[in-house]
Structure formats: structure tokens, C-alpha cells
Amino acid sequence: MTYRDISSLCEMTRVLSYPRLISMENFRQPNFPLVAELMKWLVKQYDAQADIPQDIDGEQDRVIFIRTVAQIIATKAHMKLNTKKLYQADGYAVKEILKVITPLYKALRDSEEKELEDDEDIGQNYRYAMNDDISTLKNARILCSTITQKGANLHELLGKELDAREARQEVINRSMELSEVEEGIKEAARAAKRELEKHQKMIDNVQIDEQALDEKIQKRREEKDRHQRRLDMLRSVRPSFMNDFEKFEQELNDLYSNYVLKFRIASYLEKELEGHFKNQREKVQEVSRQYMQSINSHITEQEQQMLNRQLNDPNEDIGEHSDEEESEDTSENESDEEDLGQQKMNMKMENGKSFGAMTGDLSDDEQPQDEYDNEDDELVAVQRQQKKMGGSRKRQQQRMPYDDDENF
């Protein structure tokens, strides 16, 4: 099977006006209905009165159909087809179909070429129809095939005539004796008897083998019954460790249930505690932010007051002014420390009230108060740093009037 063969078949069927189109993909897989339809059409082209079986559903029906088609083609077209390849109904069947369809295609092409050449000389009334030309060419091809085949057979027989002549003459000259005929018949009878004995021994051997197989089957059945009874007995017996196994299994289920419950409770409590700590941190940050805002506003007011006093009394003594500044800074630091201590006491009291029973069950290592103490220490350090920065700014502002005074 080649691509060229399939394409040639498609082209020939189209030119010969086959009722349906044949694709290149029709013969990729076995397609017996298409092959059967195509062969019916081709047989009808050779012999319109041919009787072809119509049933191709069963395997035997298909075999009969292929044999009938092959016989008709051999009789009418004198062509031998390979029935096995036709029965395959795939690409290999294409070559066999091409043997049948190629003469029709060539005859049609020849007739068309001849008509084109003689178109000027022959009128429309004297043209033959396509069917007449095909029938004429079919008869001529049949005669040519018959002559060729007969001539080949005759040549082959004539080549064997020398040997056949001697054998024929020997047989003719030999006289037939009754004893030889009788001896031949007896020999044939003895050969038939030997063949009968041979077949009888084979039948006896088959019976012996059948008995042996029956015995083996019986033994296998007994073994199966014995194993089945043993299996039933093992299923009915309860193992000694089964009670302990069931008890431990129940305990394991209980422990797992308790573990799951405690794990869920612990997860929930951890989540709640984390949320509580977060809220407390937000509260402390809010309080510290408010406190820092108040401190900053207070420092700003004091700086403004000091600036106003300096503007009002620009000629005060420098030494006295610095002593007053130091005393004011000392008093401010003391007052700020007192305010800070009071603020820390208030925050501790609020934290003690907010925790309540939540911190009552915690251990010494888990007291959240240490976190707030550390935050208070950091807050104090920040406030002290800010106070120092505020004092330095105030001293700079106090020196500004004296820098501009010409008498100083």
C-alpha cells in the first residue's frame, strides 16, 4: 500500500463517475462495507446481469461474497485476485481493486483521446456512447487475455510433451495383470487398516488422558474443600489477644478525643490571650502618646513664658539670671519627676484593674506586668531626654537678647 495507489484509486473512481467520493482516509483502517460496495459496482460494470450476494454482516457471508466476486472477475475479466487481501479491506486491498478498475479507466481515457483526435472528422451523429465504447474495449481485452493465456498454457504443455510421451507410451505398452491389481488392493487395505489402528490408539490415549484429568480435578476439589473448612475454622476462633487489643483501641480513642479537645481549648486561649495583650499594648501606647503631647505642650508654654520674661527684662544680671535658670530647671525637673511618678502609679493601678482574674491564674514567669514596667522605664528615659533638650533650648533663647545688646 502506497500513497500513490490510494490517490490513483480516488482519481479513477471520480473519473468513472462512481456514485460517492472516496477519501484518502477511508483505507487507513479496515473498511469492508466500502470495499464491498466498490467491488459490486465494478462487477456490474463488467457484467450487469451478475448475481452478487447482498448480505455481508457475518464472517461467513463476507467470505462467500469475496469468493463470488473473485470468480466473476476471473470469468469475465480473466484476472486473478488475491482474496485474502480483499478480505482485509485495508490498504492492501487497494492494489487488488486497482487491477479491476485500471482497464476501465484506460479504456475511458483512450476513448476520450480518440474522440478528441477525430472530433473534426466525425460528426455528432456517428459518435459512440461511453457505454458502447467500454463494452467494445471490454470484449477486445477479454479476447486478448484469452489468447495470451491459452498460448502460454499451450507452450508449457508442449515443453512437457517429450516426458509425457514416454510415460504415456510405457503405460500403453504395459499389460495389466490381475495379480498386480489384487496385490495393490490388498496393500491399500492394509494401509487403511494401519491408519485405523493408529486412530484407535489415539482415541484410547485421549480417554486415558481424560481419566487422568478427571482424577486431578477431583483432587483439586478435595483440596479446595479442605482449605475452605480450615478457613472457616480460623474465622470462627477468636484470638487470645483480641480482648487486650479492643481495650487498648478504646483507650486510644479516648486519649485522642481528650487530646483534640485540649488542643482546641489551648488554641482558643492562646488566641484570646494574644488579643488581650495587643489591646493592653494599644492602651499603653495611647496613654504614653497623650502624656507626651501634654509634656510637649507644657514645655512649649514654659519656653514661651521664659521668652516673654527675657524680652521684658533684657538688662538683668547674667549671673543672677543663670542662677535663676538653674533653680527653675531644678524645680521643673523635680515637678516633672513627681508628675511622672504619679503617672506611673496611675498606669499600674489601671493595669491591675484591667487584668483582674485573667492574670490571677498565671505563673510568676508569665506575669504581663514586667512588660509594662519595661515600657514605663523606656517612657521615663524618653521624657528625661526631652527635658534635657528643652532646657538647652531655653538657655539658648535666654542668651539671645544679650547677644544683640550693644552695652553688654
Automatic annotation (TrEMBL):
Coiled coil, from the record: 178-237
Gene source species: Didymodactylos carnosus
Similarity remark: Belongs to the CLUAP1 family.
Entry keyword annotation includes Transport: no
Protein's recorded name: Clusterin-associated protein 1
Biased composition (Acidic residues): 314-340, 362-379
Main location: other
UniProt keyword Ribonucleoprotein present: no
Record key words, sorted: Cell projection, Cilium, Cilium biogenesis/degradation, Coiled coil
Biological process, per Gene Ontology: cilium assembly
Region (Disordered), start-end ranges: 312-408
Taxonomic placement: Eukaryota, Metazoa, Spiralia, Gnathifera, Rotifera
Biased composition (Basic residues): 385-397
PANTHER family, alphabetized: CLUSTERIN ASSOCIATED PROTEIN 1, CLUSTERIN-ASSOCIATED PROTEIN 1
Compartments, record wording: Cell projection, Cilium
Transmembrane segments: none
GO CC terms in record: cilium; intraciliary transport particle B; microtubule organizing center
